[in-house]
Give the backbone structure.
Amino acid sequence: MTTTDSAQTTQVFRIYIKAAPERVWEAITDPEWNARYGYAAPQFFELRPGGRFHSEASEGMRKASAEMGWPCPDVIVDGEVLESDPPHRLVQTWRMLMDPTTAAEPMTTLTWTITPSQGGSKLTLTHDVTGAPATAAMVSGALDEDAGQGGGGWSWVLSDLKSLLETGSTLAG
């Protein structure tokens, strides 16, 4: 997997997955799938330009937040679908609402590109984090997971997605 430094305004993450583009698309856009990897928070997409995107807090997130003494909103990420071309390209805005600092930053833009590659798929996630330095640090994986600061960012989420699609279980599972 490749990634860029968190100080960059555009971060690019690339991973190769032994799964057809249609399966990768489904794992990204279907809440039954996307709640099974990464931070295990279901994500909901209205897959049309102008459609709503949001992710809901999992029970694990609510419990962890309560233990740390801060509230966890029901909707932890929000945004809008800008483009949807299944199973090849999804462009959306994205804003993390769990943390007051990232919630105050402007929307960022995610571009998911899925192309066939050597018996599977190449998934490229481009995250434009212009004007959102706290979001940039979080999604780059620069924050310390062991200190409860957010964890491995997109690299970890995409690695977990790859593991789930290729083996049927996540990195933790």
